Amino acid sequence: MSPRRSLLRAALADTSRPALGTWLKIASTELLELVAIAGFDFVVLDLEHSPMDLESASGLIGLARHAGLPAVVRVPDLHPGLVQRVLDAGAEGVMVPHVDTVEQAQAAAAAVRFPPRGTRGVGATSRVGDWGALPLEEYLRYGQEEVVLIAQVESADAARQAAAIGGVDGIDALLVGAADLAVSQGAAVSDPVVQDLIAEAVRGARAAGVPVGNAGGATAEAVRAALETGFGFTMLSNDASLFGAAATAAVQAARSVPLPTLDPHPPAGRTS
User: Fold this and answer.
1) 0.90 exceeded by the pTM?
2) Contacts of 217 (CB under 8 A, 6+ apart)
3) Could you give all domains of the chain from N- to C-terminal order, each with its CATH number?
4) Looking at the annotation, which residues are catalytic?
């Protein structure tokens, strides 16, 4: 049996083009299918800022695996039991918000990796272990070498420590949360102070040798700005916003069509 390789890890390592993801906030199999059909490199199931629960996420992870779409789960906080369950459900990665210190990064890495690198428990009869059909050695290797851990940098302290956070064994990528970073500074994302912190986080990630990404808009201009800032992967909006924008555009287009001017005295029709 050939080793199972993470499509997400490969996408993040590809320097020829940015890896493109989007958030899924609505627990809908149809929406996940549409994301896969659209050609995204990965999807992030958002358990932090949506009502999605673990059971719904597990079903979506299973569908994503069959669709060839890497699924990451953003957990609401660092709870090792929850991290273990989403990984055993087959998630290719975990995103942990508000990783502000090296110690928090180390705790996140420990929750994701098996001993001796971490403290994750063994559950080889779960989906990621093909319900027990996958050899134990491969189940363990996949968890140690292929699963991707993304730490979110969302504060000034985290931005300044990005190199150290990214250098923690087991941290595979950083994602800069510009909105939370700006709010923590009482400023807008465009404020020079916030922009300097974002730039510092990008430099830190590069120094640590890990990919760094952002959450942006679903436009060419947004992606261009992300790449110019130094991000290697980017989140293109989210399912709710994408549908909302498309629905709004459809209504606006329809409302822009004027009613035709009708002749109040149309010619009489033929009579036989």
Assistant:
1) yes
2) 236, 237
3) 7-144+215-249 (3.20.20.60)
4) 49
